[in-house]
Every structure is written in structure tokens, then in C-alpha cells.
Design goal:
alpha+beta, Calcium-transporting ATPase, cytoplasmic transduction domain A, Calcium-transporting ATPase, cytoplasmic domain N, 3 domains, 8-stranded antiparallel sheet, 23 helices, elongated
Length: 688
């Protein structure tokens, strides 16, 4: 791995804790905190108890100053712990953004007069480049901006962006034409058309997204906030009505004192869902951060959460399931020809072929038959591939070498006076039925055999598809190949279904039909023809190696261009949903213990019979209330690591998962406060 890949930042990193603490205090500003209604209400309670403390000190209140002061202090800490959790999550993202920003270097660009490799250029600063400018990038040059290769092919080191040290090929006219500013060309030269103005580049967007500046709340998050607000409002009404109720009870019973304002505030804060409200912002931000650790950039938190509910995944074949280029994997000689003779002829026919397929033929000839790479012979005439002839080759010293589609080479051989062996036709049919592409090779009037061109699956993809299937996600491969080829590749890749001869509108229709059935659809792709489907999908994952339109249409970009990363995206999406649900369950369950701690203490002077509810045997009413307030504050920082790390995803049926989480976070949420409040009371009781 390259040193440029950002490493996970420890939650307890001293520098991170220091900056988060400062930011937490800044977030106490009501103009910022109002976006979290529950914690905003708690902050109002802080001011109320602060006033009560001052009144106690000046003798205008009969409550002990030590009690009101401690309640006020711990309520302020409750709010600070909440803002600290959010600041800590944001700080981790900003630390990664700062690391990424360091990879940016001011470079000069060779802006071309015309988009050609031999065109004249002027040397200008990269900041002066504008969209649609064409630049020349030669070996050793840094790419001055995001763009698309329009001429040539080159080897590019993208470690500054992806963290992977292995260079990749970027070339014009295919699905691997997109290049990113800040990466370096290490071999050959290319002409790049700039696709983004300064400040709008891919890295600029990544930095902005990582910092969380443009993060939007998701529907699930908004729904949860509405629930929390409703619960808070209910508890507020309950607490407000307790004051006149206690006044009436004192008069009716002829004993006791009314419930004080400080106790009412403490009761409200302890019963309101402060735990989940405090941690809610951190959960979403941390989800995006965890995804970035996987080298995946999410354009919004909504995309990650949607991934947690995905039912069906559509994958483009070329560049997504397969490596993107067909490779020569075997020479199949016929009619008495040897493999050596076929390899020699195939190599000669490929010397002028600069396509990835042509280069793979040369490589296979060297690997299989020990034929070293040859330079183009002097006096040779290259016959380029054309859509009309569907073959290419080389003429040298009166010898004619050709390779191409079977029917085209058959026709060519017959025109040269040769014949096509029946064995050759059988081999061509066999290779085609296996889902590969047969290229027939001839020398003069003799057909020597077939080159087996095969789509190479990306490593480990079958295992990842099996994992997706275990999570209840159905995989569908979409490809422009004929049904025979598509079926063979689908079987080898172990996808659940496939759509062959798919045009952009076919992909779009399939997604819409699935969505109409109530399914959440994810789509991965890298080509311009995938852009419409990516724009329609609920979760759209574009490969970083893909074209600019594909990347712009997506809401998630995989920097490693590994389609199986969707498994990581889905797991993190489920983690976010589960973490919110689990912490909400834990927060609400906490209220059971707080009821037993605060209600008897608040009304004990009026109704002595309530002492029977003091099951924790707390020292005194004041220590009971203060212990509950302290526990309510302390539990927030204790749960911050869980909010940042997320609940571990367990692949199991939904109903079983619900029971499991209710047992852990529901029952646990009731037991932990009983223990925690009692332990705190043992300490607080010594000073009250």
C-alpha cells in the first residue's frame, strides 16, 4: 500500500481530542445547537438550573446550593458531551481531509493549441486551466486537473488518490479514460481534455465531503429526530403538569413540599432521550468516515443509509465484474499447424495492434511459446482494424498475416484461394459457446487456428457475490454481450441473473421496474452508457476508473474500482441504521431505572409510601436525583466509541436480529442504569 492512503485515526488521539474539545465549546452556541432540538432543550434547562444555583447562593431559594450547583454542572456536562461527540466525529473526517489535501501539489500545465500529441503547447499554471482545455501530459508529469483522455494511452500512478501503488492504464475511447488531478503519468504521453474548473475537481469535492460540510440528513435520520422531538415534548408536558399536581397534593395531604424547579428540570433531562440525541449527529458523520477508510467516497449520508436497505444490485460487466479488457488466454491450432506456428503468426498480426487485446496476444506468445517481443519490421504494412473488414494484420515481404472475426477471416482465406477446415469451425463454435471470443488467425491462404479471447473476472468476485446473497441481495449482471456469452460469464461469476444485449434504456427500465415493485436498487458501473442507470438507482456506485459522466451521475465513488466494495458499503449502511436503533432502544430503556430513582425521590415528602419504590436503596432524595443526572451525562461519552465504530453487523434474519438487539440493548439498557446509578449514589451520598 502507498503511504498516501489515509489510516484510521484513533478516537483517543491527543491532538484530535484537543481540537474536538475546543470545537465542542464552540458548538454550545444556541444558534448552532438549535439544529438538535433535544439538546437545545437541555441547554435551556442548564440556564434554568444556573439561575436556581445563583438564587440558592443568595438565599432566595430554600434548596441547598450544593445540590442545585451540582445539578447545573452535570447538565452543562451533558450538553458538552453531546457537542464533543459530534466534534470528535467531524474531527476524524477533517484529519483525513487534511491528509488528502497534502497530496495536492501546484503544477504547471502544457495547454495545447489543438488536441493532438504533436501540437504546440504553452506552459501555464494549473490554476489558469478551464473546462474543455486540452493539455499534454508526458512521462513524469503530474496531471494538472481532472479530465478525460482524448488521445493516446499511458501508465498512470494514482496512489495519491487511491492509495494503491500499482500503476493503471488510462487510454482514450474506452471506459478507462477518466484521469484525476494530482496523479502522475509514468510512461508514454496522453492528451487530456479538462472536465472541471479549478476548485471543482474530484479531490476538491472529496475534501469537502470528507469534512462533512455538505452532509445532508437522511429520511431515516429525520424520522428519528421527529420521534425524539415527540418524546421530548411528551416528557415536557408531564414535567410541567407535575408542578401544579405537587402543589395540590401538598395542600390535600397537609405535608411535604412542592417539587422544586431544579428537580423538575432534572426529571425532564433524565427522561428525555438525551443519549441518542447526543450521539445522533456523530453516528451519521462516523458512517461516512468509516466508508472513507474503505477508500470509498459517499456524496451524502443518504446514499450510505439507502445501501443498508438494498434488495437488488445491478452490475455492469465490463470493467466492473471483469477487468475491462478481454485477454488472450490460449492458442488453439488446427489443420496440422503447431501452437508455435500459430503463436508466431498471431504475434506478427498483432505487432501493429495497440489495443489491449492486441497487446495481450503478444504477451501470450511470449508466455506460452517463448517468443520475445519484436519490433515492427522495416517495410511492413500495417492493416488496421475497421468495422467493415472486422480484421487486422500485417503484410511483410509478400507474406500476409491476418486475425479477426471468424466469418471475416474465413472470407479472406477463401479469397486467397484457401479452404476453411471443419475442425476450425468447430473450435470457433466451442469457444463462443463457452462465453469467450474467438479470433481466427491466418497466414497467406492458410487458416492456422484460433486465439481464445476471454473476459477476465476480477479476483475474489464470486466469494463476494455469495456474501451479498447471504445478506439477501440479488445480483444481476447487465451487459451488451450476446445471451450466449453473457450466460457463460454470469455462470462463472455466480451472479443470480443477467440481462444481455442491454442498451442504456434497458438498464434504466430494469431499475424503474424494480423500484416500482418496492425494491431498493443499487447499480455499479464505469461507462458513459451507465450514467442514466446510475442517476436513477437508489445507490449508484461509480468506479474511479470510469468516465466523467459515470462519476458525476453516481452518489458513491469507489477509488479502488472494485465492484465488490458494495458489500462494505451495505454493511456500513446497515451499521448506521442498527447503531441508531440500538442506541435509541438503550436510551429509552434507561428511563425505567431513572423512574425508580427520581419519581420516589421527588414526591417522597408528600407520599412517604413511595419509599417502597426505592428498590435501589438510594441514600437520600437529593443524592438519588443527582446520581440519575450524573449517570445521564456520563453514559454519553462512554457510548461515543460505539457511535463512531458502529454496531457490528450480523447477517441473520430481521426478526432474529430484532430479538438479539432487544436482549442486548433493551434489557441491557434497563440493567446498566440500575447498577450505574447505585454506584454513583454510593459516592455522592457521602457529600450530600
Amino acid at each position: 500500500m502507498s503511504k498516501h492512503r489515509t489510516q484510521p485515526t484513533s478516537v483517543f488521539d491527543p491532538q484530535l481530542l484537543k481540537s474536538a474539545s475546543i470545537e465542542a465549546l464552540r458548538k454550545l452556541d444556541p444558534r448552532i445547537l438549535y439544529r438538535n432540538p433535544v439538546m437545545f432543550a437541555v441547554e435551556i434547562c442548564c440556564f434554568i438550573t444556573l439561575v436556581s444555583f445563583i438564587l440558592s447562593l443568595t438565599g432566595f431559594s430554600h434548596e441547598p446550593a450544593r445540590f442545585t450547583g451540582m445539578v447545573s454542572l452535570w447538565l452543562w456536562l451533558t450538553v458538552i458531551f453531546s457537542t464533543f461527540a459530534e466534534a470528535l466525529a467531524e474531527g476524524r473526517g477533517k484529519a483525513r481531509a487534511a491528509s488528502l489535501r497534502k497530496t495536492r501539489t501546484e503544477v504547471m500545465a502544457k495547454r495545447l493549441i489543438t488536441p493532438a500529441l504533436d501540437s504546440k503547447y504553452e506552459l501555464i499554471s494549473a490554476n489558469l486551466l478551464r473546462k474543455d482545455d486540452c493539455i499534454l501530459v508526458e512521462a513524469g508529469d503530474l496531471l494538472a486537473g481532472d479530465g478525460e483522455v482524448v488521445c493516446g494511452a499511458a501508465l498512470v500512478n494514482e496512489s495519491a488518490v487511491t492509495g494503491e501503488s500499482a500503476p493503471v492504464v488510462r487510454e482514450s475511447g474506452g471506459d478507462r479514460s477518466a484521469v484525476t488531478g494530482g496523479t502522475q503519468v509514468i510512461a508514454n504521453a496522453i492528451v487530456v481534455r479538462i472536465t472541471a474548473n479549478p476548485g471543482e475537481t474530484f479531490i476538491d469535492r472529496m475534501i469537502s465531503l470528507i469534512e462533512g460540510a455538505k452532509r445532508r440528513k437522511t429520511p431515516n435520520e429525520i424520522a428519528l429526530e421527529v420521534l425524539l422531538f415527540a418524546l421530548t415534548l411528551v416528557f415536557l408536558l408531564v414535567v410541567v403538569n407535575m408542578s401544579p399536581l405537587s402543589l395540590y397534593s401538598v395542600k390535600a395531604a397537609g405535608q411535604g413540599v412542592p417539587v422544586s424547579l431544579t428537580i423538575l428540570v432534572a426529571l425532564f433531562v433524565c427522561l428525555a432521550p438525551t443519549t441518542i440525541a447526543a450521539l445522533l449527529p456523530a453516528i451519521g458523520i462516523a458512517g461516512m468516515d468509516r466508508l472513507f477508510q474503505k477508500n470509498v467516497i459517499a456524496m451524502s449520508g443518504r446514499a450510505i443509509e439507502a445501501a443498508g436497505d438494498v434488495n437488488i444490485l445491478l452490475l455492469d460487466k465490463t470493467g466492473t465484474i471483469t477487468l475491462g479488457n478481454r485477454e488472450a488466454v490460449a492458442f488453439v491450432p488446427v489443420a496440422g499447424s503447431s501452437e508455435q506456428q500459430l503463436a508466431e503468426a498471431a504475434l506478427m498480426a498483432s505487432l501493429g495492434d495497440e489495443t489491449p487485446e492486441g497487446r495481450s496476444v503478444v504477451t501470450l506468445a511470449k508466455q506460452k511459446c517463448g517468443i520475445s517481443h519484436r519490433e515492427l519490421p522495416a517495410g511492413a504494412t500495417i492493416v488496421p482494424f475497421s468495422a467493415e473488414t472486422r480484421l487486422s494484420g500485417l503484410d511483410i515481404d509478400g507474406v500476409v498475416y491476418r486475425k479477426g472475426a471468424a466469418d471475416s477471416v474465413f472470407s479472406f482465406v477463401k479469397k486467397q484461394g484457401g479452404t476453411v477446415p471443419k475442425e476450425l469451425e468447430e473450435q470457433v463454435s466451442s469457444i463462443a459457446h463457452a462465453g469467450a471470443t474467438p479470433l481466427v488467425v491466418s497466414r497467406d491462404s492458410a487458416a492456422l487456428g484460433v486465439i481464445n479471447l476471454k473476459d477476465i473476472l476480477k479476483s475474489g468476485i464470486q466469494e463476494r457475490f455469495r456474501q451479498l446473497r447471504s445478506m439477501g441481495i440479488r445480483t444481476v449482471m447487465v451487459t451488451g454481450d450476446n445471451p450466449m456469452t453473457a450466460a457463460a460469464i454470469a455462470a462463472e461469476a455466480e451472479v443470480d441473473d443477467f440481462l444481455a444485449q442491454a442498451k442504456p434504456e434497458d438498464k434504466l427500465r430494469l431499475i424503474r421496474e424494480s423500484q416500482e415493485q418496492g425494491l431498493m436498487v443499487a447499480m455499479t458501473g464505469d461507462g458513459t452508457n451507465d450514467a442514466p442507470a446510475l442517476a436513477q438507482a437508489d445507490v449508484a456506485v461509480a468506479m474511479n476508473t470510469g468516465t466523467q459522466p459515470a462519476r458525476e451521475a453516481a452518489n458513491i465513488i469507489d477509488l479502488d474500482s472494485n465492484p465488490t466494495k458494495l458489500l462494505d458499503i451495505v454493511e456500513i449502511g446497515k451499521q448506521i441504521l442498527m447503531t441508531r436503533g440500538n442506541l435509541t432502544t438503550f436510551s429509552i430503556s434507561n428511563d425505567v431505572a431513572k423512574y425508580f430513582a427520581i419519581i420516589p425521590a421527588a414526591l417522597l415528602s408528600i407520599y412517604p409510601q413511595l419509599s417502597a419504590l426505592n428498590v435501589m436503596r438510594l441514600a437520600s432524595p437529593h443524592s438519588a436525583i443527582l446520581s440519575a443526572v450524573i449517570f445521564n451525562a456520563v453514559i454519553i461519552p462512554l457510548l461515543i466509541p460505539l457511535a463512531l465504530r458502529g454496531t457490528k453487523y450480523r447477517p441473520m434474519p430481521a426478526e432474529k436480529l430484532l430479538v438479539y438487539n432487544l436482549l442486548i440493548y433493551g434489557v441491557g439498557g434497563m440493567i446498566v442504569p440500575f447498577v450505574g446509578i447505585k454506584v454513583i449514589d454510593l459516592v455522592v451520598g457521602q457529600f450530600m
